[in-house]
Amino acid sequence: MERIDDKSRKKFAKYVSLNILAMLGSSCYIVADTFFIANGIGADGLTALNLAISIFSFIQAIGLMVGIGSGTRYAVSKSRGERETGSQVFTNAIVAGIGAGCLIGAAGLLFAGPIAEAIGADEITKGMTSTYLRVIMFFAPFYIVNHTIVAFVRNDGNPKLATIAMLAGNFSNIVLDYVFIYLFKWGMFGASFATGIGPVISICCLSVHFIKKQNQFKLIRTKVLLQTVADFCKLGISSFVNELSTGAVIMIFNFLFLGLGGNTAVAAYGIVANVALFAVSIFTGIAQGIQPLVSDYYGRGLTNQLKTVLKDAALVALVLTAVIVAVSNVWSDGIVSIFNKSRDTQLQSIAKEGITIYFLGFFPGSLNIVLAGYLSAMEKAEKGFIISLLRGLVVIAPSALLLSKVFGMTGVWTAIPVTETITLLAALYMTRRIIYPPQSSAEIPQSREL
Questions:
Q1: In terms of Cα–Cα distance, which of 424, 413, 414 is closest to 391?
Q2: How far is residue 144's CA from residue 98's CA, in Å, rounded to a whole number?
Q3: How far is CA 108 from each of CA 103, 132, 147, 254, 324, rounded to the nearest angstrom?
C-alpha cells in the first residue's frame, strides 16, 4: 500500500526550497548585469544587453537540456537499481556538453559581429552587443558542464551542495560586475567576463562532492554513443525549449519594440524581462526541485505520491505567483527606477505598463513550467516538449504579431498572458490523461512497494 508520510512532505519541501534558492541565484547572472550596465553604462548598454540575452538563453537552454535530461535518466535508472549506467550517462553528458560548448565558443570568436546584427543591433549598439556575445559564447563549455554536474549532484542526494555551488557562482558575478564595471571601467566586456567566471566558480564548489567521495557516478573510459546522447537530450528537450523560448520571445519582442518605440522601448522591455527572470527562476526551481522525486516515484510506480507532488507543486507555484504579482504591481515604479538612472520618463512609463500586464501571465505560466518539468521527469518528454513549444513559439509569435498590430505596445505585453492561458489548457488535458488514464492504457508502472 502506498503511503504519503511526513518524510515525503519534508523531502518535497527540501528539494523545492533549495532549488528555488539556487535558481533565484542563477537569475542574478543577468539581473546583476542589467543593474550595473543600466547605471554604469546607460540605456544603450541596456539595449545591447537585452539583444545579447537571446543568445545567452540559447547557451543556457543547451546546458539545461544536457543537464536535466542526463540527470533524469540517471535518477530513473538508479531508482530501478540500474546504477551501472550512471557513469556512462555522466561521461556521455560531459563530453557532449564540452563539444557543443566549444562549437558555440568558436562561433562567438569568429562571428560575434554578424550575430549581433542578426539579432537587431544597430550602429549604436553593435559594438557593445558583439563584445558581450564574444565573451559569454567563449564560456559556453563551462555553462553547459556546470548545469550537468549540478543536475547529477542534486540527483545523487546532495541538493544542498548543488544549491551552494550555484549561489557561489552567481553571487561572485555580482561582486565582479561591480569590480569590472565601476572600478576597472571595463564596460560591456567586464559585465560579460564577470558572468562567464560564475560557472567556473560553481564547478569548483561542486568538486567537493567528488573529493569527499560522495559520488555514485564518475567519468569512465567508455564510448560516447549518439544513442545515449539522443536519449537524455530527449528527456531534457522541454527544459531546452522552455529556456530557448525565453530567448525566442525576447528576440521577437525586441524587433516589435524597435519598430514601435525604438531603443528606448527595447531598454524598457529589457527591464521587464530581466525582472521577470526572478519569477521564472522560482517556477523553474519548483520544476527542477520535484524532478528527482517524480523520477524516483515514477520509476517505482508510486502513483499516489506522483499525484501529491503535482498538487503540492501547483499550489506552491500559484501562491508564489500571487505574491509576486501583488508586490510587482504595488512597487512597479520603484522597481523600474532602480534600472532607470537617467530618469527617462518614456522608459519609466513603458516599463511600468509592461510589469502590470506581463506579470499576469505568471498565473498560467507558472503551472505550464511545472507541468512541463513534471511530465519530462516521468519520461513523457514529448508531452513536456509540446507544452514548451506552445508557450515558446507556436502561440506566442502569432499572438504578439497580431496583438501588436491592433493595440501597439500594449498588445505586445498582452501576448504573454494570452499565450500562457492557451498553453495551460493543452497542458492540463495532457497531464490529466497521464495521471488519470483510461484503465486500459495506464502510463505509470505498477508499484514496486508493498
A1: 424
A2: 7
A3: 9, 10, 20, 21, 36
**Residue 446, domain member (yes or no):** no
Cell of 79: 531508482
Neighbours of 49 (CB within 10 A): 27
3-class secondary-structure state, position 395? coil
Q: Which residues of the chain have pLDDT under 70?
A: 1-6, 29-30, 438-450
What's residue 439's pLDDT?
Answer: 59
108, 143 in Cβ contact below 8 A?
no
- The backbone torsions φ and ψ at residue 2, rounded to the nearest 5 degrees and listed phi first, read -85, 135
Three-class DSSP category at 246? helix
Regarding pTM above 0.70, the answer is yes
**How many residues in total does the chain contain?**
450
Cell numbers for 17: 526550497
Rounded Cα–Cα distance for residues 186 and 191 (Å) = 8
Containing structural domain, residue 364: 6-437
Residue 343 Rama label (left phi>0; alpha psi -120 to 50; beta): left
Please give the sequence-ordered ranges of beta strands (E in DSSP) within 153-300, or none if there are none: none
Q: How many CA atoms lie within 13 A of 410 on its CB side?
A: 2
Chain segment 211-254, per-residue pLDDT in tens: 988 888 888 888 888 999 999 998 888 788 778 877 788 888 98
C-alpha 364/C-alpha 366 separation (Å) is: 6
Residue 449 lies in a domain: no
Q: Would residue 450 count as lying in a domain?
A: no
Do the domain assignments include residue 196?
yes
Q: How many domains are contained in the chain?
A: 1
Residue burial 191-215, b: 16+ Cβ < 10 Å; e: rest: bbbbbbbbbebbbebbeebeeeeeb
Residue from 109, 31, 101, 25 nearest 67 by CA: 101
Question: What are 305's three cell numbers?
Answer: 505520491
